[in-house]
Amino acid sequence: MQALILSIGTEILLGNITDTNSQYLANHLKDLGIDVYKMITVGDNKKRLKNVLEEADGKYDYVFMTGGLGPTEDDITKEVAVEVCGLDNELELDKSSLEMLEDYFNKKNKAISINKKQAIFPKSATILKNPKGTAPGCILKSKNNTKFILLPGPPHEMTHMFDNEVKKYLESSYIIKSVTAKTAFLREWDMASRVDLTGDNPTISPYATDNGCILRITAKAKDEKEADEILKKGIKRLKNH
Fold first, then answer.
1. DSSP category for residue 214
2. d(CA 225, CA 222)
3. d(Cα 49, Cα 38) in Å, to the nearest integer?
4. 213 partner at 20 to 30 Å CA-CA among 77, 89, 170, 241?
5. Averaged over 130-145, what is the pLDDT?
6. pLDDT at 66 over 90
7. How confident is residue 175, by pLDDT bands cut at 50, 70 and 90?
8. Based on C-alpha coordinates, what's the Rg of the chain?
């Protein structure tokens, strides 16, 4: 499975804040057997964001998007993603999300009129709860079967949502299991000629560390027993080299 990680926010491009969200997502997605093919940062510009999403649609299994889910005019992530997925005619006010917003602001004694747009989603969307802030996330599926996963920008909100909502979604139809193996002498550049890295289940991915090259073998299966059998095949492939 292939993924694009897309961080949205002009403040990132200006160097005002550091994008730690992309690093966090990439680090956790590899353990789920999802290969991150590219990371991109786009400013708060509707045309540029739409171009990136249209190019990604159908090319990747998942597009993980962080930022731009706030209540102001420059928070355009959901609006553009809905348009690219062709879900404009499904938009409706989600009562559960609105109730969470009302509860959040009642506790803080603030008005919520400007925030109501954060509770509007396509009917087919999977809504991701955000108990750490005001911006719920969501998962949208395009006609080309790409799943756009929209997450909030503040790192403490994004990490909580990913750990408690997104991982459950990704793991709901299968399990992912990984093991690692350390090579004695081979360097990363030498792997392609020495080790068979082809195949998508299990996947075998090398990465370099200060202590040598590590191979991560990852299996996707319907249950743990099947995953163990797939991992054994991957380990056998390594031993043959």
1. E
2. 9
3. 15
4. 170
5. 94
6. yes
7. confident
8. 20
